[in-house]
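Incident log, support desk, overnight shift.

02:14 A customer reports that sequence design results differ from what the structure should imply. Their input is reproduced verbatim below. On-call engineer (initials T.W.) acknowledged and began investigating.
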């Protein structure tokens, strides 16, 4: 890895748009300092998510954080959201500049 880059985790959550607010509040309580949200469309176990109606809209939440924050977020997602919502989450190792922002 480039020596100027610092190791962080990229936590990616793709979920139903209707749970955006409570999910972001939960992430903030865990220690997430910032996030990026984009609209997402696709197909999976829950069928087509075409975003033509608010009830079929998906969002993609991306968070750069330390591994302990990513682990805590995954635990919260698993215990509070997986059973009742269409949601996936994954973590990637990334290198970032300006590590103090995350």
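02:41 Re-run completed on a clean worker. Output:
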């Amino acid at each position: 890895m480039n020596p100027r880059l610092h190791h962080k985790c990229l936590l990616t959550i793709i979920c139903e748009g209707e749970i955006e607010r409570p999910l972001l509040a939960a992430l903030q309580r865990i220690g997430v300092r910032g996030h990026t949200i984009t609209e997402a469309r696709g197909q999976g176990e829950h069928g087509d998510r075409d975003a033509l109606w608010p009830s079929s809209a998906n969002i993609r939440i991306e968070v750069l954080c330390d591994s302990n924050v990513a682990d805590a977020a995954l635990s919260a997602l698993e215990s509070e959201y997986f059973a009742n919502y269409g949601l996936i989450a994954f973590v990637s190792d990334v290198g970032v500049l300006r590590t103090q922002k995350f």
